[in-house]
Design brief:
The chain is an alpha/beta fold. It is built from 17 helices and 12 strands.
Length: 410
């Protein structure tokens, strides 16, 4: 008896929607026409395999920390001053003594070449052109030397982010290499004694490098240009780590040192002459401890919700941190920044600058360097417009009176 449901060759009309082959010009036009970070996020989702998109978009466990970071920004209510001259809003500032065009730093993010094959080579020049610092991660996919050589003398403010490894000698060697390559600021991340439980990565079976499983092979048909770029450029690997096989969590747990403590910060302060930023501070008392130990700045951050779920919400902890350390150190904030108004709100509440992570990675996934550039254009336009509407011609004119958090004030 003939099979009532025989197999047939796929028809092009059926395959075409699955392939999503956007001609490069159309994709570039979509990126250039994106009006918000959310638009770029939608493009990123479309052009990037799910495991890579989720690695960026996801957070730890129930993802409550990230949700709450966003909710805190949604509680922001601006209190504009009217009839003031805002014909030329100027969002320039200084960050650790150097001029920055915006109160923004591109945060360190690992495994960047998974988002787009050009990875850090696409992010760094966009940051330099926009006049904001960019922090290269210890988990980066390009070494400090290669990034510095590719950038040349473009005036970039280069920061290097450090995770303390079990092997202190190797950590010391790495920061010496960063210093020799012209990275002027060291960022020590302190919220990662062990890997957070990023459940999307577990469900997606994300490994480094990506394994060629049946699922990834099927994905090739849906994201052909991403795969083509991956397979025709140098292998995707961490540039500063020698052991690179397995999941991010196994790697973090084998290389990072959960025994790192205050003595290590003292050691680092004695080793590194330049500005030292401690990132991942989540309480005011810890901020004071870090500044007492010689930190020049702290980042109130819970790693974008990727480590301890239900950790303190940075925007809500900011005032207490400022109370204890703002006379001795700069205070930055990150987590959930998705538009320039978020940055303005954080600055009004006292942050010197905001680090942004996912926002620029969405741009990178959507369109490489042009996508990161678009993110920075959007943030810059948002910040200027919000300042003008708020009645602040300079960042100094923003203060706690410019903003309140609904739910805490009348
Ligand atoms: C994909 C990804 C990778 C990250 N890798 C690192 C890292 O290697 N080192 C680090 O200190 N922080 C890392 N972070 C945290 C960011 O530096 C930053 O704290 C966080 O992204 C801020 O939240 P946001 O993404 O909502 O802006 C990473 C974040 C993301 C999204």
């Amino acid at each position: 008896m003939p099979d009532p449901l025989p197999r047939q060759l796929p028809r092009w009309s059926e395959l075409r929607p699955l392939l999503q082959l956007a001609p490069p010009a159309r994709r570039a036009a979509r990126v250039a026409g994106a009006g918000s970070i959310d638009d770029l996020r939608a493009l990123a989702r479309r052009y990037t395999p799910r495991a890579a998109f989720d690695y960026v978009d996801g957070a730890a466990e129930t993802e409550l920390s990230l949700t709450r970071a966003r909710l805190a920004f949604e509680r922001v209510e601006f209190r504009p001053r009217v009839l003031v001259d805002v014909s030329d809003p100027r969002p320039a500032t200084t960050i650790l003594g150097r001029p920055a065009a915006l109160p923004v730093v591109l945060a360190p993010t690992g495994f960047t070449r998974m988002m787009h094959h050009r990875g850090e080579f696409a992010v760094a020049p966009a940051a330099a052109r926009a006049g904001v610092p960019y922090a290269l991660s210890t988990m980066g996919t390009v070494s400090p030397e290669r990034l510095a050589a590719a950038q040349g003398d473009d005036g970039a403010d280069r920061w290097f982010q450090l995770y303390l490894w079990r092997d202190r000698g190797a950590s010391k060697e790495l920061i010496a290499r960063a210093a020799d390559s012209g990275f002027r600021t060291l960022v020590l991340t302190v919220d990662t004694p062990v890997a957070g439980a990023r459940l999307r990565d577990v469900r997606n079976g994300l490994t480094i490098p990506p394994a060629l499983t049946a699922r990834t092979l099927a994905d090739m048909a849906r994201h052909p240009s991403w795969w083509l770029n991956l397979l025709t450029t140098e292998p995707l690997a961490f540039a500063s780590l020698t052991s690179t096989n397995g999941t991010v969590a196994t790697l973090v747990d084998s290389v990072f040192d959960p025994a790192a403590d205050q003595d290590d910060l003292d050691w680092l302060r004695g080793t590194w002459d330049g500005p030292l930023v401690v990132k991942g501070v989540q309480t005011a008392e810890d901020a004071r401890r870090m500044v007492d130990a010689g930190a020049d700045a702290v980042v109130v951050s819970n790693h974008g919700g990727r480590q301890l779920d239900r950790a303190v919400t940075p925007l809500e902890e900011l005032p207490a941190v400022l109370d204890l350390v703002s006379d001795r150190a700069e205070v930055y904030l990150d987590g959930g920044i998705r538009n320039g108004a978020d940055v303005v709100a954080a600055v009004a509440l006292g942050a010197r600058a905001c680090l942004v992570g996912r926002a620029y990675l969405y741009g990178l996934m959507a369109g490489g360097e042009a996508g990161v550039e678009r993110v920075l254009e959007i943030l810059s336009a948002d910040i200027r417009r919000t300042m003008a509407l708020l009645g602040a011609a300079t960042l100094d004119e923003l203060d706690a009176g410019s903003v309140r958090l609904r739910g805490t004030c009348a």
